[in-house]
Description:
Elements: H1 2-7, H2 11-27, H3 32-38, H4 50-90, H5 92-101, H6 117-127, H7 132-139, H8 143-153
Helix pairs in contact: 6-7, 6-8, 7-8
Amino acid sequence: MLALAAGSSYDGEREAALAAARRLASRHGMSLSEAARSGGEPESVREESPFERMRRQRAAARAHAFRESERQAEEDRARFRAAWEDALRRGLDREEERVRRHPGPSFMWRSRRRLEPVQHATVLLNETRLPFAEIAEITGLDRYAVVGLKLKLRDAV
């Protein structure tokens, strides 16, 4: 920190480095002059291996991709908010209110035509794999009548 404070050509950088050196020295119970005397030579910087360089580059690429996806998501949110506000200005909420006040038909038209229970059970036996008990419940027939129909529908061997 002291070397940075002494060697920097920028006033703000020198002041910040000197303030950081004072904080570091006080944290270790030393004065600034004591810290300067005991500093000695800085530790040598170990060269990065190719594997470490590759790991660092991959981590940087992942961080960049994450920041880019976050930026795109924020842009999407901003576009959505702008479109929503524009739709509200054009009266989207008034249209929704009109639909709520005057709803369409609340039921669907269905055919009133009903099959006879035996015909209905025959269709269900031929076209579905429903259990006999469910077919009997749907058609209103006895379970044994449904089983009898199934036996009669079998092909003769």
